[in-house]
Amino acid sequence: MGNEKWHEINPGLYIDKPGSSKQNKTGSWRTFRPVTDKKKCIKCAICWLFCPDNSRIMVENGYYDVNRIYCKGCGICAEECPTDAIEMVMEEW
Questions:
Q1: Inter-residue long-range contacts of 29-33, CB under 8 Å, 24+ positions, other chains counted
Q2: Looking at the predicted structure, is the pLDDT value of residue 70 above 70?
């Protein structure tokens, strides 16, 4: 199989300066986005707790919505929601 050299890549981690996530607007990577059904939502904040990008934000009356600037559409919030109130839908650009 070809000249594959993936195993030669040095392991590493890129760390930017603290607080730099505000400049790294990662929402443009998204192909799916979470949509919350407020009729099913019990305002438990599990979606906020498990969101790896901290893109779940509290909105009116204690519900949580998504900050589309930072949400990558990973679906963890939908997977962890105990009432299935979050559905991942195809993003419309």
A1: 29/72, 29/73, 30/68, 30/71, 30/72, 30/73, 30/91, 31/73, 31/90, 31/91, 32/73, 32/75, 32/88, 32/89, 32/90, 32/91, 33/66, 33/68, 33/71, 33/73, 33/88, 33/89, 33/91
A2: yes
Q: Is domain 25-90 classified as CATH 3.30.70.20? A: yes
pTM over 0.70: yes
Q: What is the pLDDT of residues 39-55, one digit of tens each?
A: 999 999 999 999 988 89
Q: Domain coordinates of the chain in residue numbers?
A: 25-90
